[in-house]
TrEMBL record:
Residues 711-773 form the Alpha fucosidase A-like C-terminal domain. Residues 1-28 form the signal peptide. Residues 312-709 form the Glycosyl hydrolase family 95 catalytic domain. Pfam families: Glyco_hyd_65N_2 (PF14498), Glyco_hydro_95_C (PF21307), Glyco_hydro_95_cat (PF22124). This is Glycoside hydrolase family 95 protein. One of its GO terms (molecular function) is hydrolase activity. InterPro entries: 6-hairpin_glycosidase_sf (IPR008928), 6hp_glycosidase-like_sf (IPR012341), AFCA-like_C (IPR049053), Alpha-L-fucosidase (IPR016518), GH95_cat (IPR054363), GH95_N_dom (IPR027414), TAT_signal (IPR006311). Transmembrane segments: none annotated.
Amino acid sequence: MAGITRRTGLKFSAVLAGMTAIPAHVLAQVLAQTALPSPQPRQPAKPGDLTLWYKTPAVEWTEALPLGNGRLGAMVFGGVARERLQLNEDTLYAGAPYQPANPEALAALPEVRKLIFDGQYLEAQTLIQARMMANPIRQVSYQTIGELTLTFGPSSNASGYRRELDLTRAVSTVTYRQNGVTYTREAFISPVDQVLVVRLTADKPGSVSFQLGFETPMAAAVAIEGPTEIVLSGRNSPHNGKDGALRFENRVRVVAKGGQQTTGVDELVVSKADEVIIYSTAATNYKTYRDVSGDPTAITKAQIAAAVARPYDQILGDHVVEHQRLFNRVSVDFGRTEFADQPTNERIAKSLSQDDPALAALYFQYGRYLLIGCSRPGTQPANLQGLWNEKTSAPWGGKYTININTEMNYWPAEPTALPELVDPLISMVRDISVTGAETAKIMYGARGWVTHHNTDLWRATAPIDAAFYGTWPTGGAWLCLHLWDRYDYGRDKAYLKEIYPILKGASLFFVDTLVKDPASGYMVTSPSISPENRHKFGTSICAGPTMDMQIIRDLFDNTVRAAEILKTDAALRKEIKTLRGQLVPNQIGKAGQLQEWKDDWDMDAHDMHHRHVSHLYGLYPSTQITPRGTPELAAAAKKSLDLRGDMSTGWAIGWRINLWARLGEGERTHSILKLLLGPERTYPNMFDAHPPFQIDGNFGGTSGMVEMLMQSYNDEIIILPALPSAWPTGKVAGLQARAGYGVDLSWKDGKPERVTLTSRLGEATRLVFGQQVIEVKLRAGQSAAYTFDGVKLVAA
């Protein structure tokens, strides 16, 4: 993402703010200076370790706690005098259906290519900016509904205050004592009943009193529908001078036991109740990216009526069961020390100086919690903020930035046993294969489909923002890797048949648009960029950057493999294989680095420590570069990582964790993980601090910890490839590997204690530990266990 800002005033900000790149030996010194003088005693994890908790209410949005059911989101502040619940609905974006493909682009394309091949890169950028960018050049922003507010009284004085978020139940709880009364508030968003539910209780009858209303920055109005119901109705923001097409509604029903319910000016009033349950839901008229004929009033009325008719305990119980159906599939334990008993914000603030392995485990599971909360079948995919955004104009629009960020959101899904949560992403790719086909034809005269570096609710696919950032035609091709991974983990041929036309269309675009580089003779993309990096000629514009070649190789390989499995398109398979062999190969440059560009420009680049490490896609998430399979290229990738440095934006640190883990460098990986968990890159509520908040860093952190413990690629399951000394003993259960394998793993003193593989499909694989390779062939439903005899793994 373009642009970096930093928070300051935290304990280590003065040290870290200047560390654009941290060499390994310097980083080791920094961490050594902040480390505790002696290791802390280790204990097993406790049930409460998967709870975020605090001694004070949230003041800033990045201190509030997130709830979500994939479609509805809320941020709970936990105030005493005034509670704030900031609300989101996942289809509330600005604008209306539109197609921004630029019809002038096709005529300009030959001249742009000529300028690039003649080395006139700045001139090519100028022409692209004038003739080949989207119209409008900006996409729409994700937007907030506003806030549901509960005003209790003038005083915030309270004792025994605690607010928490239980990841295992997806329930937020606030408790405190005031004027001799203990108050409790529970909140959750049910994926079953599609409502936000808040229950307010007290240990003395007649003690629950408050006023309930809305605050919103949107164009909206409040209607009171009796003493128990209040509705916020509004419209989304315009885009490119045209009115927005979406209407939204947030409906609230308040059910009190005892006391009185009345109305005020734009508010509901509850006085001296024994207990109150608040039901809230929201909807828009969005149905698809080209259909806005929905009825938000009918939706919200039906959902509220159905929820109110059910007992609270049933709604809560069904919610917890459904959440745990997903969340409980994976457990992890890195050990715990006494620091795990501190409030979450204090642990984060001190994370660079104290031994707190349980914080890493909490972060791991928090990533899974967030994905469950912001991406479920039938919802929109996780965007740059997942689901949670307080602004009418979110950071970077809260869109789907697909030159890394959207993909990173879904890296942990398959290996941490959440495959169905990828469904919204797959659905979006189906949509953009349609809108992208229009863009491919209009702008490139090509078959197939294309998406550039961003898309939005309306599935826009043309290049946006500026030529420097948007001239990148391989975004859709990268997304296709997630479609293939779903198949590779589950091996469902019916699903493969469904997605094959999408893979084929993405490949056809490059069959039609790859051109021969006059200097090298290789087939290249042109125009393109290596996101979002400026090379020695003052721009990003180039031909055939390394990342493009790597992504297209994966796309071509997976399309051919799919066609072979489905026994179709023999002629196309042959054409694609031939074209694949003509792509620019991975190359090692003069500094021993993996080249980022077709030419060896790396050491003269504008920013040696750039946040993007695009050319290392081949190492992760791809498997074109591996330590055992391509050791020279792996060494070159390592050199590139050293040159780039470790400290960067949150998501960029997340990517580096995965890359170093793939290289098998456990100590280096853990040192970078500590940077991610530190106060410069993790907010008090554990949101990733880009800054500002972007959720991809959270998901990259979870994925990176998986890679430290287990890697699955090339028909192998590699255990403990990057285990750090900071986690000498631990266990993880429920991880998933390709070909339908479940992996349970425990280790002691840095060595595997027990490994259990369970096959769902009866496919073959290989189990790898160090240099040991074990051939594994189990029947469907069969398990095999292995223990460590001090030298190697042996069958248990």
